[in-house]
Design a protein that fits this description.
homodimer; alpha/beta; 6-stranded mixed sheet; 22 helices; 19 strands; 41% helix
Chain lengths: 554, 554
C-alpha cells in the first residue's frame, strides 16, 4: 500500500538555514517592506528523483520559507509588510511537486503537509500578533499549494493578464485534497460561498480576473502594467497600520549546530537520547542557569543565547528532526532539569515586558513550539522527578503531555509550579490555554490554581489534578516502565488518531479544523488506491495513462 | 487493501422495522418511563458469517434501536424517560461485533459507523429538543460501542459488582478508534480530563467502581442489590422535568413499503431513478397535493400520511438505501415537483404550531433527515426547473446541495421561495442554518432574504446568491449534462473528503467534530495495514496470532 519512496530520506533532514544560502527564495528589504520572492531551483530538491519546475516546492523550499518568516520577526523589527511573490515570469507557484509526492512514503507526505501547514499558520500568527502584514502578489499562475500559500496571507492581489488564475487542482487532477488548509481557508477564512468553492475546487484551470474577485478568491486584480505599483501601494498602506518599532535593532538567530549521532541529539540546553529497542526518545530540557537578564535591553544583549529563546529553538529543531528522521521512536519521554525558582524568575521577566516587541516574539515563538509538540504524532509522557523544573512555561511541557508521572519520594523534594505564562500567552491551537483545556469539566479551578503562588508537592499536584499519577519511590520504576512498555506495544496509527482526538477538546478553530478535519481526510485519501494505487490519479499524473477509479463512494 | 467482505451485502439492507418484530430489543412502557432492553440474538446478524455474542451488535441491531427511539418520539408522547439496559446477565453490551467488522468492506465499515453515529445523535437530539431523558443502566460489562451508546445518554449508572466496567478497548485490542464518537464524547461531553481519557482509552479492561465516577466516566455506581431501585428513582426524577404531554395520543408510523427495482425506488411522494451508466441517482420529491390540515388535531387525524412527515420519512429511507445498497451512484440530482404556494402553506402551519409536541417532532425529524443528506458522501446537485417547489422546507434541499442550477426560461415561470423554516428550525450539525452557512461572508443578507415574502425568479435568485447558476433554455441541457458528467469522472474518495470539508464551514460542534475529526481519523486507520492488513490488529483479534505492527509513526 505504501508508495515506493523511503520512510525517511536517505540523508536526514536538517532544518537549519541562513538567508545568504537560500536556494529558492530571495529576501530583500526596502524600508518597512520586505519582499520574499520565490525562485525555486529546479535541481535543488531534497532528493534527486524529481525536478522542481515552475516554482513547485518540496520540504526544502518550505524550510527556507519558514526560516525567512522567523528571521523577519526576530532580526528585522523595522519590517511591517511582507510581500510574497515570484521571480519567475508568469508563474507564481505551481504548488507542491507532484513527482516528489508520488515518490514519497505515506508518512513523508503526512509530515510534509504538517510542516507546510505549520509554516502557513506561522505567517498568520505573525499577522495576528506581531504587527506584520503579508501580501501575496500573484504575478502569474498560482496553483494548489501556491494558492494555499496565498490564502495564508492577509491580502491576495492577482495579475489580470488574461492567463493567470488561482486554482486548487488537487481533486480534479490528482484525486487528493489540497494539503495545506486550502479547502478550510476558502470557506472559513475567505468565506467563499460553499457552492462556488465546490466549483472552484473541481475546475483544474482555476478562476481568474473579475470572477476571482467576485467569488472572494482574491482581493483585487490589476493589469500587468500597474501590478507592481498597486502591490507597492498596498504594502505601504498596510505598513502604516503596524505597531512594530521603527528604530530598534534585531536579534540575530545563529545556527544551533546540534551534535547528532545514532543514539542522541545534543544541544546546549536540550538533549534527546534514543532507545531504539524500546522505541523511546527521552527529551531533557535544562532550565536557566546563572544570572538572567531582567530588561529588554539585557535580553537583546544576550541575543539568541537568552535561555528561553535558546531552549525553545533547540526543542523546536529537535521535534522536527524526530518527526522526519526518527519515525519509529513512537514515545517521547519529556523531562526537565534545573531550578523551579530560577525558571519562574525568567517567566516573571517575560510577563513584565510582554509588550516589548522582542519579548513578544519570544513568547509567541515558545507558543508555536509548544503547538508543534501538541501536533507531533508521538505519545508524550512527562516524568517529573527531583531536580526538575516543570514550572510556568516549562510546566506547559507536562500539560502538553498525554500523561504525567510525578515521583512522590518523602526523602527528595519534588515540586511543580504555575506562573502567569500558564494563564494566557501560550494558547493551544484550540484558542484555550492548556490549563483551560485540561479542566474543561471544572473550569472554575483554573483561576484558583493560577493564584496559587507556592509550588505544588506531589500530593498537592495530584490533588489539584495537575499531574496524572504520583507513584511513590517503591512503585515509581515499575509503574513508569510498564506504562512506557505498554504504550510502545500499541498500534501507532490508532495512537495517532486517538491522541489527535483527545488532545484538542473544547472549541475548534480554523487551525484545529485544518489539523483535525482536513488533515485527517487527506491522510485517508492519501492511502486509498484511487490516489496512490497502480492506476490511481496521483500515480498516473504526467504519464500516458489515465487514472482508473473504483467508483464506490465511501 | 480492502478486506474480504463484499462492498454491499448479498441482500440489500431494508431499514423498516416494527417493535413487534424486533429481534434484538424489548421495548416496554410503564407510565412515563420506557425501557429499551438489549437482548441481541446471536444468530440474528444481517450476515451469517458472525455470531452476535454478548450483546455485540451489527447494523441490524442498530436499525432497531433507531426505530425504537423514533417511535417513542412519535407514538408515545406520554413517555418522558427512556432507560436503556440489557436483558443479558452481567453484560450490558460488548460493542460492535468484531468479526462483522473484520468481514466487512471499508465502505461498509464507514457507513455502519455513520449510521450508528446518527442513531446516537438522534438520542441526544430527543434529549435536547423533545423532553425525553435517557438513562444508560449498565447492569454488566459495557465495552466499546456499548459505552459509546451509554455516552449518548443523559446519565450513566453502572452496577458496582466488582466486575462490571466501562471501557473503550478499540485502541489496545483492535488497533482502531472507537467508531461512534467515544473519544469526542469522553473529553467534550463528559469532560473527562484528557490524561485520564488517555489512560482510559488504552486500558482494555476499562475502569469500574468509584474510580469510574471520580474520572467522570459514569454518573453513579450502585451495588447490585440496589441497582434497579436506583435506576427507577432516577427515571422518575428525570420524568418530572419533561414538558411532554401526559394525555395525548401518539401517531402511528406505518411501513413505507417502497417499490424497489433495479432501476428505481418508488415511494408515494419520493422517487429515485438510477442511471447506472452515468452513476447518477435522480431524487424527485413531490410537494403537498390537495387540502392540507391547518391544526394539530387535523395533522394528528392525517397521521403518518401528513405530507411533510410522509415525504421526509420516504426521503430518509431512500437516502439510507442509497448509502448502503447503491454505493456506485456517486451523484444525487435532487428535483422537486409541485406548487410553491402550497408548499409554503404547509410551512406556515408547521411554524404556527411549532410548540405543539407533534409538530415539534415533525420539524425535528425533517431536520434530522436533512442532516442525513448533508452527511451522505455523494455529490448533490439540485436542479430547479419549472413546476418545481423548492420553497421553504423544500428549498433546504437546494441549500444542502453542493451546487444548484436554476433554469431561466422566459417562457416558463420558475421560482424559489423562502419561509420561516429556513430561519432556524432546520439547523445543520454546525449549529447554523443552511442560509447562515451559505452566507458566512455576508451575514447581513440572511435576515434581508428571510424578510422577502415574494418568490425569487431565476435572475433574482442568482442575484441574491441563492442558486449557483441560472442557465437559459439554450444552455441548460449542455451545462447541466457537462457538470454531471465531469463530477462523475472525479475520484470518489477525493470528492468525499472535499465535500466533507466544504459543507461544514463555520463553527464546529460536538456533532461536526464526531463526523469531521473523529470519523476522518477512523476512516484512515480502518484502511491501514496495522489494522486490516494480514497481520493487523483487527485481523488478528480472536485468533492465535498476535498483531505485528509497522511501528513508524505517521
Amino acid at each position: 500500500m505504501e508508495t515506493a519512496g523511503p520512510a525517511a530520506p536517505p540523508t536526514p533532514v536538517d532544518f537549519e538555514r541562513t538567508p545568504e544560502a537560500y536556494q529558492h527564495w530571495r529576501l530583500s528589504f526596502d524600508g518597512p517592506v520586505a519582499t520574499l520572492a520565490m525562485d525555486v531551483q529546479e535541481d535543488g530538491g531534497l532528493r534527486p528523483d524529481y525536478r522542481l519546475k515552475l516554482n513547485s516546492y518540496d520540504l526544502g523550499v518550505d524550510i527556507e520559507l519558514a526560516d525567512a518568516v522567523q528571521r523577519i520577526r526576530f532580526e528585522h523589527p523595522e519590517i511591517r509588510t511582507v510581500v510574497i511573490t515570484s521571480l519567475k515570469e508568469r508563474v507564481f507557484c505551481a504548488g507542491a511537486n507532484i513527482f516528489m509526492l508520488r515518490g514519497s512514503s505515506h508518512a513523508w507526505k503526512v509530515n510534509f503537509c504538517k510542516f507546510t501547514n505549520e509554516t502557513r499558520l506561522a505567517i498568520e500568527d505573525a499577522s495576528a500578533h506581531s504587527g506584520l502584514r503579508f501580501i501575496a502578489a500573484l504575478n502569474g499562475i498560482c496553483a494548489g499549494g501556491g494558492y494555499e500559500l496565498a490564502l495564508a496571507c492577509d491580502e491576495i492581489l492577482l495579475v489580470d493578464d488574461g492567463n493567470s488564475a488561482v486554482s486548487l487542482p488537487e481533486t480534479p487532477l490528482l484525486g487528493v485534497l489540497p494539503g495545506t488548509g486550502g479547502l478550510t481557508r476558502v470557506v472559513d477564512k475567505r468565506k467563499v460561498r460553499r457552492d462556488l468553492a465546490d466549483v472552484f475546487s473541481t475546475v483544474a484551470e482555476g478562476i481568474k480576473g473579475r470572477r476571482a474577485v467576485e467569488w472572494r478568491l482574491v482581493d483585487a486584480v490589476h493589469p500587468t502594467s500597474q501590478f507592481k505599483e498597486k502591490v507597492a501601494q498596498r504594502a505601504s498602506a498596510l505598513a502604516s497600520l503596524s505597531d512594530r518599532p521603527a528604530k530598534e535593532s534585531g536579534l540575530l538567530l545563529k545556527p544551533l549546530s546540534p551534535g547528532i549521532s545514532d543514539s542522541a541529539m545534543v544541544y546546549s540546553t536540550v538533549r534527546v537520547d534514543f532507545d531504539r529497542r524500546a522505541r523511546v526518545a527521552t527529551v531533557i530540557v535544562t532550565g536557566p542557569e546563572g544570572p538572567q537578564p531582567s530588561t529588554p535591553a539585557g535580553i537583546l544583549a544576550r541575543g539568541d543565547q537568552y535561555w528561553p529563546l535558546r531552549a525553545f529553538r533547540e526543542l523546536d529543531d529537535a521535534l522536527l528532526r524526530l518527526r522526519f528522521n526518527e519515525p519509529t521512536l513512537g514515545t517521547l519521554i519529556v523531562k526537565t532539569h534545573g531550578d523551579v525558582a530560577g525558571t519562574l524568575a525568567v517567566d516573571a521577566v517575560l510577563l513584565a515586558h510582554q509588550r516589548h516587541w522582542l519579548v513578544r516574539e519570544i513568547a509567541h515563538f515558545i507558543k508555536r513550539t509548544l503547538k508543534r509538540l501538541d501536533l507531533t504524532s508521538r505519545s508524550v509522557f512527562a516524568l517529573i522527578e527531583p531536580d526538575s523544573c516543570f514550572a510556568g512555561t516549562l510546566f506547559e511541557l507536562a500539560l502538553a503531555a498525554d500523561r504525567s508521572y510525578m515521583l512522590d519520594d518523602p526523602d527528595r523534594a519534588n515540586t511543580i509550579a504555575l506562573s502567569g505564562m500558564n494563564g494566557g500567552p501560550l494558547r493551544m491551537s484550540n484558542g484555550l490555554t492548556r490549563l483551560e483545556t485540561r479542566f474543561l469539566g471544572t473550569p472554575g479551578v483554573v483561576a484558583e490554581l493560577l493564584e496559587e503562588a507556592a509550588p505544588f508537592d506531589p500530593a498537592a499536584a495530584l490533588d489539584a489534578g495537575l499531574v496524572s499519577f504520583a507513584p511513590d519511590e517503591l512503585d515509581w520504576d515499575d509503574e513508569v516502565r510498564l506504562a512506557v512498555e505498554a504504550r510502545a506495544a500499541l498500534s501507532p496509527d490508532a495512537l495517532t488518531g486517538m491522541e489527535a482526538n483527545l488532545r484538542f477538546a473544547g472549541p475548534e478553530t480554523m487551525e484545529t479544523k485544518i489539523f483535525g478535519r482536513l488533515t485527517a481526510w487527506q491522510n485517508w485519501i492519501f492511502v486509498r488506491p484511487n490516489a496512490v494505487g497502480e492506476k490511481g490519479a496521483l500515480t498516473s499524473y504526467g504519464s500516458q495513462s489515465r487514472p482508473e477509479f473504483d467508483f464506490g463512494r465511501t
